[in-house]
Amino acid sequence: MSGRVVVVGAGHAAGTFAALLRQAGYDGELVLVGAERHLPYQRPPLSKTFLAEPATQWLREAPFYVENSITVRLHETITLIDRVAHTVETSLGQVLTYDALVLATGARPRMLDVPGCDLPGVLSLRTIEDAAALRDGLAGAAGLAVVGGGYVGLEVAAVARSGGVPVTVLEREDRVLARVASPALSGILAAHHRGRGTDVRTGADVVAFEGDADGVRRIRLADGEAVDAGTVVVGVGAIPCDELASRSGLLCRGGVVVDGAARTSDDAIWALGDVTVRPRHGGGEPMRFESIPSATEQARQAVASIMGKPSVEPEVPWFWSDQFDLKLKIAGVVAAPYDTVLRGEPATGSFALFHHHGGRLVAVEAANANADFMAGRRLLASNRPVDADRLGDPTVPLRELALA
Amino acid sequence: MPNITYQLPDGSEQTVDVPEGQTVMDGSVRNNLPGIVAECGGSCSCATCHVHVAPEHMALFDEPMDEETELVEFLDGACERSRLSCQLIVSAECDGARVVVPDTN
What is the pLDDT, as a whole number, of residue B80? Predict the structure, then answer.
């Protein structure tokens, strides 16, 4: 295929897609249009290493884009898609024709709509600039409050605490990671954070940020209590940037709806990454995955589809998170109903929670337990029956359970 | 600069320069060779940079840590010459080393 492929966005999904499209032999024009000022970079390290000196991990170094004839237009957005004429218009007024259009517009942090949410020092974390602001804020701040006990929030809390900063985590639900992790993992991680001096509060409903022109001073909770903080990070989820798609008449349902080839409701338009609502391995309701592996898989799907190559095998969803000394890896979707088997010992810092239902694995949550994680991922991919007793018996080798 | 040869999933071969101190994964990513996905950026997390090192070149690289061994054990196409290329740091002695990139990343 020749012609021109235009990618809306220049983040991780867009950059990966562009590299894979060239790998697949596409020799037409390839243009990325990104709202940020930077070439595609690795976003996961931002919440894991933001206290260190700024050392951006580029997805690819700058010469790569020149060598591979990939045009990257930065600090520019697409304002209009003409699906009939196959053109897009950029914020600089330029019109580009496309043979294939790829939407990789990502997501943006959800903000808390409460009084004081625009005070200096109330931050979120998505971009290089956000990470720098957080680092600067913590340098002089009295303490950090993290609003939202999700994965990003807990990673930020762990890094700050490791750097000696007093940290409070405020979670509205009755446990951290309420929507994304099992109760067992929530409990283990909350204890892990508390054991390192972080004040983890659940059932904490933030109603206001209070302070003055210099910035935020404290957080007010629904029960009237105040929590002092010189810096606040709000990590209460992300909103898919699907406005352009929606405005263009593409099917959106809490994100751009795509099929297993990453194709939208328009045959000439694909979508990738955080902005998409996508089919799941093994069936179930389509959902949004905010993870690198999902974005990579969709990039491969779109490349195969655009190049007319065989479709790619669906993958088991997974992601990773680092918190203190715990390297967490989660595969599958942790969604009730399930029963849980523990393998290993949380107190040692190496363990895995295998969640199963109807004799099949539904998810595995592993910490410093790569073999358990990989075995779980294989079991999820094969959907072979599992025996919960054997799974929880450390004398039964994982090889036997997953490979034999 | 050391030369590393990659046998790609389609059977073809590419030889590229990899600066000392960089990894076999870095050399593949920088040259956009197919097969090594490297989605975690080289933090020994994702196991998408699996290679088979030529038998005579295994000793050119540091022994794997447990973290890597455990990931590799459960990969498709794993064998005793399997390594994660993000953990293969290239030194001057590695010049001429050869890896096979399996079609399973």
Answer: 94
What does DSSP say about strands A100-103 and A269-271: parallel, antiparallel, or unpaired?
parallel
Determine the residue among A374, A377, A378, A399 to mutate to test chain B binding: the one whose Cβ has the most chain B Cβ atoms within 10 Å: A374
- Which amino acid does the sequence have at A318? W
pLDDT in tens, A267-296: 999 999 999 999 999 888 999 999 999 999
User: Does residue B4 belong to the interface with chain A, where contact is any CB pair within 8 Å?
Assistant: no
Instruction: Determine the structural domain holding residue B37 and report its residue range.
Output: 3-100
* Residue at A198 is within a domain: yes
Find the largest Cα–Cα distance for chain B.
Answer: 34
**Given an 8 Å threshold on Cβ–Cβ distance, is B46 in contact with A320?**
yes
How many angstroms separate the CA of residue A19 from the nearest CA in chain B? 7
Mean pLDDT of A303-332: 95
**A101 plus A38 within the same structural domain:** yes
pLDDT at residue A328 greater than cutoff 80: yes
Tell me the shortest Cα–Cα distance from B71 to chain A, in angstroms: 6
For residue A384, what is the domain's CATH number?
Answer: 3.30.390.30
Closest CB from A61, A370, A402 relative to B70? A370
The interface predicted TM-score (ipTM) is 0.93
CB-based burial, A99-127: b 16+ in 10 Å, e otherwise? ebbbbbbbbebeebebebbebebbbbbbb
* Euclidean distance between CA atoms A55 and A43, whole angstroms: 12
- Domain tally, chain A: 3
Instruction: Measure CB to CB from residue B39 to each of A45, A296, A329 and give the nearest one.
Output: A296
* Chain A interface disruption, residue of B8, B45, B69, B105, most A CBs within 10 A: B45
pLDDT attached to residue A141: 64
The answer to whether A327 faces chain B, any CB pair under 8 Å, is yes
Which of A234, A266, A296 is the endpoint of a domain?
A234
A320, part of any domain: no
Nearest CB among A60, A329, A371 relative to B74 is that of: A371
Distance CA A175, CA A183 (A): 7
B51-92 pLDDT per residue, tens:
999 999 999 999 999 999 999 999 989 999 999 999 999 999
Give the pLDDT confidence of A13-41 residue by residue, as tens digits.
Answer: 999 999 999 999 999 999 999 999 999 99
- The mean of the pLDDT values for chain A is 95
Same-domain status, A85 and A169? no
Range of the domain at A355: 325-402
Q: Is A189 strand, coil or helix?
A: helix
